Amino acid sequence: MGVGIASTALASGSFAQGKRPLSVAAIYTVPVEQQWVSRIHKALNAARDRGDITYKFSENVANTDYERVMRQYSTEGADLVVGEVFGVERAARKVATDFPKTAYLMGSSFQPSKPNFSVFDNFIHEPSFLTGMVAGKATKSNVIGLVGGYAIPEVNRLMNAFMEGALSVNPQAKFLVTFINSWYDPPKAKEAAFAMIDKKADVLYAERFGVTDAAKERGVKAIGNVIDTAAQYPGVILASALWHMEPTIDRVIKNVATGTYEPADYGVYSYMAHGGASLSPLEPKLVPQEVIDIVKAKEKDILDGGFRVNVNDAEPKSTA
Fold it and tell me: CA–CA separation, 101 vs 318, rounded Å?
């Protein structure tokens, strides 16, 4: 792919010399406000604001319409198309083969493919483990609830890391696990969280929007995911595992612009070592200093390479 694109779309004229910004288009199946997509949108907006790219996007694109939108952007001459194809893998990969001069970077559970289809994922399992440690120390009932979107590897690995983190500091912890089978249904997530609170859960892992609202209403604590909403829920969110898409987006833009782009798995750039993930600041008013100390020590072990968080994509199960 590196040779193919470099010798066609990228190596000739002013584009290869960086005299014009890349044309980037993105396709999102949910609103750009949704946690996961918001991180991609933020990184692309930052690149646009720097003048590196022009950027247009479509949100709330149904899976049945995804291929049409992807083809439209490709036909219009986008240098790079970004999106998430978890429900439309086959169709998306077919489009990519039909437009070999276009670079694609897609959220996917599968591998990259020639000539031009790269993949990424939000590998934030490391800070998820750390937030699990916070939750394990915070629970009084030893029942922790987890509400997720779909039981797919991208969600499962975060939940499993969170649960392992909780158990590492509290072997008595038990878990209630529910998937709402939607990426964006705050009322449904909220109801699932209410059901867990009724079963004695006093800390909730908010993988989806709506869970923290339930925690706030019922006076329990929550753990955030992907974005930091602590300011919107003061006194409710103990910690969050944050995703930063900038290292991934910036690298693929540079590779396309310099003609070095190849189909690859960009997931590694979501690891903490690359700045793609982090633990939100811990507030001593909510998290005891002794807990902050052990969590920060584990964070240092991860960054130093002395501790490796498991990547477990199996569907997590309730134990409570």
Answer: 47
State which amino acid sits at residue 17.
Q
- Cα 211 to chain centroid distance, Å, stands at 17
**Beta-ladder partners of 22:** 53
Q: What angle do CA 242, 295, 298 make, to 5 degrees?
A: 95
The tokens describing 140, both together, are 């009084």
Q: What is the pLDDT of residues 52-85, one digit of tens each?
A: 999 999 999 999 999 999 999 999 999 999 999 9
For the range 183-187, what are the long-range contacts, defined as Cβ-Cβ under 8 Å and sequence gap of 24 or more? 183/29, 183/30, 183/34, 183/36, 183/149, 183/150, 183/208, 184/30, 184/31, 184/34, 184/208, 184/209, 185/210, 186/210, 186/213
CA 84 to chain centre: 11
Burial string for 198-210 (b: 16+ CB within 10 Å, else e) reads: eebbbbbbbbbbb
* DSSP state at residue 259: T
Q: Give the up-direction half-sphere exposure of residue 63: CA atoms within 13 A in the CB hemisphere.
A: 8
Measured CA to CA, the distance from residue 208 to residue 219 in angstroms comes to 18
d(CA 71, CA 59): 15
Instruction: Give per-residue burial for 160-197: e unless 16+ CB within 10 Å, then b.
Output: bbbbbbbbebbeebbbbbbbbeebbbbebbbebbbebb
Cα separation, 287 vs 139, whole angstroms: 11
The structure tokens listed for 298 are: 């584990």
- pLDDT, tens digit, for every residue of 246-269? 999 999 999 999 999 999 999 999
pLDDT at position 6:
34
